[in-house]
Amino acid sequence: MLRSLLKMFFSLFPWVALLLILMVVYRPDLFFKIDTSKSSFIAKPVASVPVLVGKIVSRTLAKNLKTTGSFKGLETIAVIPKVEGRVFKVFHDIGDEVYPGEPLLLIDETDLKLVVIEAKKSLELEMAKLGLSVLPDEKFVVTNLPMVAKAAILEKNAVNKLDRLRRIGTASSVEDREQAETESKVSKVNLDNAILEVNTALATVRYKQALLSTAEQKLKETKITVPVVQNPGGLDYANFIASLGGKTPFIVYSKGVSEGEMVHLNPMEPLYRLTLDRVLKLQVSLPEKELSQLKLGQNASISVEAYPGRTFLGSVVRIYPTVDPLSRTFQLEIAVVNSSRELKPGFFAKVSIEVDKTIDVLTVPEESVVSFAGVTKVFRVEGDKVKQVEVKLGQRISVSMGNKIENWVEVSGLLKVGDSIVISGQNSLAENSTIKIRSLEPSTIEGNKDF
Q1: 8 A C-beta contact, residue 386 and residue 429
Q2: What are phi and psi of 300, to 5 degrees?
Q3: Cα→Cα distances 174→165, 168, 184, 187, 377, Å
Q4: Same-domain check for residues 117 and 202
Q5: Dihedrals φ, ψ of 154, to 5°?
Q6: Which of 61, 140, 193, 445 could be stapled to 136 by a disulfide with Cβ–Cβ 3.0 to 4.6 Å?
Q7: pLDDT digit string (tens) for 90-128?
Q8: In this structure, are residues 148 and 191 in contact, taking their beta carbons and an 8 Å threshold?
Q9: How far apart are CA 440 and CA 261, in angstroms?
Q10: Are both 237 and 216 inside the same structural domain?
């Protein structure tokens, strides 16, 4: 027993001796009485860390859904020819502004004019056979025509003669009565035949009239004009069209024909493509989980690479009622007034749709946030000391301060509006570090702005 205790004592002795030495070196006051007033060693003051500070600012932040899409014309029309022929004259080229009813091109009408003349002469010939000078309408009575009137008179005379012979009875011979009956039947058949021939002739007249109308219509269609579109884009876009004064000019963005070229109906190729670009629609897709946050009329901020730094405004006008089962996304349309025509159909756009607003949100300059070992924090100034405050980050925003853009971030934690925080030099700080404020960053002026 004694041997084991001695063995344990000698094994621990070096460690106990080392501990005593360290205590004597670092805490001599535990073993000796020291007169600090006579000590030749004076503690050096702790150095202050120079820092810049700013203020925590309360703002109203908008919650946005971000996506991308491509611009399209509100209406896009392919102008197709209805008649064949050689292009006689072209009135507009790519980039021209055109209004509904305005001529685009003219197809040579010489051959069609001849067809119209031929159809007119053929109609006049058929009308002359019936003794007509004007086209008959649907209420026309065929018995007024000479051919039918003559047959009707002969039939009436035959009937009257037969009736007269029947009244005198035996005073007339059987042969006379039989002849009268035969003449009455023949006159009846002749009348029916006359009416049939006249109806056939009238049908021919109407057919020739239809051929003439078709030839005249084809002659008109040699002049190809800008189509008239009722309610372009549908009723959802009516207010945007009204904001332009109701004018809906198109722009020629494709032309597939030149003067002297032959136009064929097969294959049928568009002569022009027109688009309505003073109001554009932006089609975008979003995940189905965002559907409940979207409503008609929500504002959208749009940026395009062609105009860096600029923002265009739009409004949600249409939310599609179906979801793509493969991508799990749905589509929506954003209307953008483009009266100056700066935006072009086909532009790729980045879109931010404002779906909600949160007021009194604490924000700090992004450079004030320190992240280390999974902990995100800021240093709050308390006198000449700092305290570490853990925070959770939210939405990041960009703030325009004069000629420069600053990045701020939403934070939540044990902070309040007006607290001073370190925005520069925090990498040299720890809890309760002593600081020296160099100057106040001009960009951290307090304010309450909406984003």
Answers
A1: yes
A2: -135, 135
A3: 10, 12, 15, 20, 134
A4: yes
A5: -60, -40
A6: 140
A7: 999 999 999 999 999 999 999 999 999 999 999 999 888
A8: yes
A9: 75
A10: no
Q: Residue for token digits 């929506």?
A: 332
Residue 361 near residue 60 (C-beta atoms within 8 A): yes
Could you tell me if 124 and 83 lie in one domain? no
Q: What is the DSSP secondary structure assignment for residue 451, as one 8-state letter?
A: -
Give how far the C-alpha of residue 8 lies from the chain's centroid of Cα atoms, to the nearest Å.
87
381: domain CATH number is 2.40.420.20
Query: Quick one: tokens of 407?
Result: 């990045």
**Are residues 230 and 215 located together in one domain of the fold?**
no
Residue 267 sits in the same domain as residue 398: no
Query: The domain containing residue 23 runs over which residues?
Result: 2-36
3 state SS of 385: strand
Measure the CA–CA gap between 329 and 289, rounded to whole angstroms. Answer: 9
**Could you give the CA distance from residue 195 to residue 142 in angstroms, rounded to a whole number?**
7
For the record, the structure tokens of 438 come out as 């160099």
Pair of tokens at residue 259: 């003067």
pLDDT at residue 148 greater than cutoff 70 = yes
Alpha carbon distance 213, 374 (integer Å): 84
Establish if 418 belongs to a structural domain: yes
- Ramachandran quadrant class, 365 (left: phi over 0; alpha: psi -120 to 50; beta: rest): beta
Q: Inter-axis angle of helices 110-129 and 174-220, to 10 degrees?
A: 160
pLDDT single digits (tens) 222-247: 999 999 888 888 888 888 888 887 67
